[in-house]
Amino acid sequence: MSRRAALIRSFASIAGASVFAMAAAATTGSCASSPDPLRPTLIVGPDYKAFTGEGQAAGVSAFLEQRCATLDCHGQVGRPLRLYSRTGLRFPNPDVQNTPGSSGTTAEELQANYQAVIGLEPETMSKVVLDPTNNAPQTLLLVKKPRASERHKGGQIVVIGDDGDRCVTSWLSGATDFAACKTALQVP
Amino acid sequence: MVVRALVRSSFLVAAIGGAVALASCALDPVHNASVNALGGEINGVPQGEYHRAGQPCTVCHGANGPAKTTFTMAGTIYYGPTKAIGVDNVQVIMVDSLNSSYTAYTNCVGNFFVAPEQWKPSFPVLVKIAGGGAQAGMISHIGREPSCSNCHKDPPYYDSQGHIHLVSQAVETQSAYTPPACPVNPVQTGNGGAP
């Protein structure tokens, strides 16, 4: 064996061993690493005022309350998307003791509704809010489920482009169509 | 010989199929718990149109049984909000999302029920009730629940408005309802439960 061939062979063995070692280390590292419990998860939500409808005839919550929040659907404590409303489930505040139909939707109920909507898919929601051009609202269950493009026990609630659909998708895109939210309320 | 073997095997298949079907009904622990939570029949109130007023009818009269008959909509209508007195001959007017409508009538304990052959609504459904010159409407729609009392249960709480009533508390106080002759007492002492 020439000296050159021996050098090449030893280099090849060292390179191979190095690659193997690096791969093993990476594998071990990925398995052994534990999530940092203190690491914050950045959640960027759509406009809260537009959700509540502050200063407008109707906001996004009003539409969700009417169409989704009945006691037999999302007005149930067991639902991941739990929605409170004037005519449905009330926030269990012992100081107020509201019952369905007793008074308007309260500030704490609106806040809880907002948190429920954001909390459904927080990471995807953040992407949609930050860059709706590259992350379309229809990637969210909040849009897919009522369209019935994803299995929805309550069936199809909106048609693509109708007032209810525009109310939600425009809000997610950062330019809430309040007129659509208001018109959507006219459907019982 | 071959025929006999075939007959025997088909009996076996049928028996296994039946057993699986029965077991699948009985093995749903959530449904079983819902049925058991309703308790037994009340003494003096036989099974039939007057029984279990105020209870969620389709827990038993639904697809999962155990009742033999199924209802697409069912419930109990009471006279006023403070006392659970079933009210007779009230119209329960329902309209579904396809604009199909059906009117059911309550019996003397306030019960009404709709069989699939009478009406199969396409949810959501809007409802109003009318009788004796009074009427009341449900503000929100029914999303998919065929039993009124799954939502309208007593006492009123964060998740329930209480039982369905035809007249307001003011009217109930001013003019008490006198139930007609009925095989079963329409006055319930419990909260939407048994008489």
List keywords for this structure.
heterodimer, A: mainly alpha, 0% strand, globular, B: 195 residues, alpha+beta, 8 strands
Structure description:
The complex is a heterodimer of chains A (about 190) and B (about 200). Chain A has about 190 residues and is an all-alpha fold. In chain A, about 50% of the residues lie in helices and about 0% in strands. Chain A contains 8 helices and no strands. The mean pLDDT of chain A is about 85. By secondary structure, chain B is α+β, with helices and mostly antiparallel strands. Chain B contains 3 helices and 8 strands; from the N terminus they run ααβββββββαβ. In chain B, strands 4-3-6-7 form a 4-stranded antiparallel sheet, with no helix packed on it. In chain B, β6 (about 125-130) and β7 form a beta hairpin. Chain B is globular, with a radius of gyration of 20 Å. The relative contact order of chain B is 0.18. Classes of the chains: A mainly alpha (about 190), B alpha+beta (about 200). The interface of A and B includes residues 70, 72, 75, 153 and 188 of A.
